[in-house]
From TrEMBL, chain A:
This is ABC-2 type transport system permease protein. The keyword Chloroplast does not apply. The keyword Acetylation does not apply. The chain crosses the membrane at residues 12-34, 46-63, 100-121, 133-154, 161-187, 207-230. Keywords: Membrane, Transmembrane, Transmembrane helix. It comes from the Bacteria.
Automatic annotation (TrEMBL), chain B:
This is ABC-2 type transport system permease protein. Keywords: Membrane, Transmembrane, Transmembrane helix. The keyword Transmembrane helix applies. The chain crosses the membrane at residues 100-119, 139-157, 164-182, 194-213. It comes from the Bacteria. The keyword Transmembrane helix applies.
Length: 235, 218
């Protein structure tokens, strides 16, 4: 519990994490306000905008980990937060669990607040709002955990940030790949978006729960690999 | 600065650029991914001409140039800047030399990228007219200006991750949304004055970065 609290404080006091919170909170409602919703997109109104806000979750997932590995500057050459963190908690498993837990909590709350704000601006409200909001919360949380896992492997924020932000674009890389092979529908972002979007140009039509499970499998696999690597590697 | 110091400064900056591992990685990735995107695009956009197929992936390659500019500028602020300023105390001169060197490197990288992209597109779509030089040159200049702008932003922010969040957030997410509503955005490319607007943005960004760098503690 102390560990969890420590990780929560670290995450919430990082300036770049605050930027992530701001992006997640402002982007979807802001875009919703300036968007005109065409008739055929009505059933996904608000939810499409929420897919953009996932950038906030990505930033949170990346910086919560990349900040551990950033050199502290000239006053402590070569000093990194991770050495302090691991002195504080010798168990790397507990450390990783606390970090993922804090990230999950922050991103889930952020997603819930943003989804409520965005849908409050959406008229008329699409069908099945409540289960789909749950889908959004799960999607944001899983995306943040994926970002966290990739950053644990790379130990720098640049690679995951680029890959994942690039892939939230309107014509994403995975979307392009899905034009080449139907297997691309099982990429975490495409599969996961079935949890809350109805109109997806995807070669395979997954049920919301199936999409969520596919994404969960990616998260579990990635975090497992990351955990093993963090265990075996010099910090 | 005398002509001799300018030459030395540019040479030193060029050496730094040429030996940064992240630069090599981004350049290779850009050169590998762009032709692949050409092939995907040629397969999906069946009615587009060869030139259009060749130019479309450059919208993604643009992100490689954002990365290039941001990483180069941010690497300097990992402590290297103290050494650089000890050698070249003229801050305005140093900053301008940096922008110039980056632009020169990016000109080469962008030219290769555009040639690769257009050649792949022509191979994938061999029939129809093919006049790539005008639009190709515009695209190359645009990529160079993008890198210079990104470097200026990263110089102001002094770190790669915040700079990339801002820049990628703009280029990937915000720009496609607001492009139809606002004019004079940094990535505006159309019409006769195609490059005037991006060039003005790059100039403003370099001027701002130089002023900030001049006034602030390193």
């Amino acid at each position: 519990m102390t560990l969890f609290h420590a990780e929560l404080r670290k995450l919430l006091t990082l300036p770049s994490a605050r930027a992530g919170l701001a992006i997640g909170l402002v982007l979807p409602p802001g875009v919703m306000m300036i968007s005109a919703v065409p008739e055929e997109a009505r059933q996904d109104a608000g939810f499409v905008q929420l897919t953009l806000g996932v950038i906030g979750a990505i930033v949170l997932g990346v910086v919560s980990t990349s900040s551990e590995y950033t050199a502290e500057g000239d006053d402590a050459p070569g000093g990194r937060q991770i050495t302090t963190s691991l002195t504080g908690t010798a168990s790397r498993t507990l450390f990783l669990a606390a970090k993922a837990g804090a990230l999950t909590l922050v991103v889930a709350v952020l997603a819930l607040v943003t989804a409520t704000l965005t849908l409050a601006l959406t008229r008329p409200l699409p069908d099945n709002t409540v289960p789909r909001v749950v889908g959004v919360v799960v999607y944001w949380t899983f995306t943040a955990l994926l970002a966290h896992g990739i950053t644990l492997l790379t130990r720098t924020g640049v690679v995951p940030l680029t890959l994942l932000i690039l892939n939230t674009s309107v014509v994403s890389v995975t979307f392009l790949l899905s034009k080449v092979t139907p297997l691309a529908a099982y990429f975490p972002d495409l599969a996961g978006s079935h949890m809350f979007l109805h109109r997806i140009a995807s070669p395979v039509d997954l049920a919301p729960v199936t999409g969520g499970l596919v994404m969960a499998a990616w998260v579990v696999a990635l975090l497992a690999v990351a955990a093993v690597v963090v265990h075996r590697r010099d910090a | 600065m005398t002509a001799r110091t300018v030459g030395h400064t540019v040479h030193a900056e060029l050496l730094k650029l040429a030996t940064l591992p992240s630069v090599r990685l981004v350049v290779v990735a850009t050169w590998v991914v762009t032709p692949l995107l050409d092939l995907v695009y040629a397969r999906t956009a069946t009615t587009a001409s060869a030139v259009d197929v060749g130019l479309a992936p450059l919208g993604y390659s643009e992100l490689g140039f954002v990365l290039l500019g941001a990483l180069v500028a941010a690497s300097e602020h990992d402590g290297q800047i103290r050494t650089s300023l000890t050698c070249v105390p003229n801050r305005v001169g140093l900053q301008l030399a940096k922008s110039l060197t980056l632009a020169a490197l990016c000109l080469v990288v962008a030219s290769v990228t555009a040639v690769l992209s257009l050649a792949t597109a022509r191979t994938a779509r061999p029939d129809g007219p093919f006049a790539p030089f005008g639009p190709g040159a515009t695209a190359i200049a645009h990529l160079v200006l993008t890198a210079v702008l990104a470097a200026a932003v990263a110089t102001v922010l002094r770190a790669a991750v915040p700079a990339l969040t801002l820049l990628l957030g703009y280029y990937v997410v915000a720009a496609p949304l607001i492009r139809g509503r606002l004019d004079l955005l940094p990535d505006t490319v159309d019409g006769r004055q195609a490059l005037v607007v991006p060039a003005c943005w790059a100039l403003i960004a370099v001027a701002t970065a130089t002023a900030v760098f001049h006034r602030r503690d390193a």
